[in-house]
Every structure is written in structure tokens, then in C-alpha cells.
Amino acid sequence: MGWAAAMAVVAAAVLCAAAARAEVVDEFGSGASFIFGDSLVDAGNNNYIPSLSKANMTPNGIDFAASGGMPTGRFTNGRTIADIIGEMLGQADYSPPFLAPNTSGGAILNGVNYASGGAGILNATGKIFVSRSFPNSINNNHVIRLMMTEQYTEDYILIILSSSICRCSCMIIR
């Protein structure tokens, strides 16, 4: 199976999981979204790092109601696919960028977006644009987990994480 076919299978599995999860409602809401990937799902992490890959200018964001039409760092004029799936799952808010200063406290219970435009699965991918990759994002997830353990009980964290979904999107360039 080639890389493109493998990524299509992963994308289909994520969408099927999202559709199945849309049926689930519990007392803790719709869970959290932890998003890993590249510009297809970046919610603005590149705004906080030195990078040639930025989306904090118009026309990006002009159709994004949550920002009042202002650029957020999303590489789109509106919502990313991660935002749309989160809405389908009934999440009240979008997962904030990991590097945003307000990504702490209760904000992390809705999930965190680790995606970075120009990043890729390999450390060398996008090195001229950003110094971020999928392995870096996984390490950042450990930081959020530590923040959670400082603020919430282990039982509460397990409930949130057990009803969470993880989404990945990375382009593979050969």
C-alpha cells in the first residue's frame, strides 16, 4: 500500500470515528480534540514561532465567524477540517493552539491543537519553514498532560481523555 493510500485509510478511519462519536453524549460533554498535523489543521501555532510559514494576514480568516473575520493563523479563509469535525462532535469551542498564551487552565479541557504549518512527520520535513515536526508535537502533548495533572484529579483527566479524539493531518512529500 502506497503512502497516499495509507493516508486515505487513516483519514477515512478518523472520519468514521468522528461520525460514531457524534452519537455519544455524556455528562462531561463531547470530550476534547487533540490535533496534530500541518497547515491543513494549524489553528495558529505559527503565530508564536519564528517561521516563514505564517497565515496571520488577510484573506485568511475573513469567513471565520469566531474571530470576527480577522486572521487567526489558520491557513484558510474560515474553519479547518479539525474545526468542522469538532463542531460535528458537539464541542463548544475550538481547540486552542498549543503555543497561544491562553492555552492553560480550563481551555485545555476542550483539547489542544499542536499542528504547525510546514511541519511534517519527519524531523527534516519543512525545516526551512519551521522547526516543528510531528515528534515535537507529541512531546508538547506531554506538557499539556503535566498541566492537567497539576490542576485536576487523575479520575477526571481519565474521563476527559477517554471521551477525546485525536486527529492527525500531515502531507507526505517525497
Condensed summary:
With 174 residues, the protein is mostly helical. It has helices at residues 3-21, 81-88, 134-151, 154-162; strands spanning 33-37, 111-113, 165-169. Mean pLDDT is 74; it is low at 3-16 and 18-28.
Please describe the structure with a list of short key phrases separated by commas or semicolons.
174 residues, mainly alpha, three-stranded parallel beta sheet, 4 helices, 3 strands, 7% strand, globular
Structural class: mainly alpha
Which strand order do you get reading across the main beta sheet? 2-1-3
Rg for CA atoms: 16 Å
**In angstroms, what separates the terminal alpha carbons?**
15 Å
Strand content: 5-15%
SSE string, helices as H and strands as E: HEHEHHE
The stretches of 5 or more residues where confidence is low (pLDDT under 50) are: 3-16, 18-28
Question: What's the shape?
Answer: globular
How many individual β-strands?
A: 3
Number of domains: 1
Helix content: 25-40%
Mean of the pLDDT scores? 74
H/I helix tally: 4
Sheet having the most strands = 3 strands, parallel
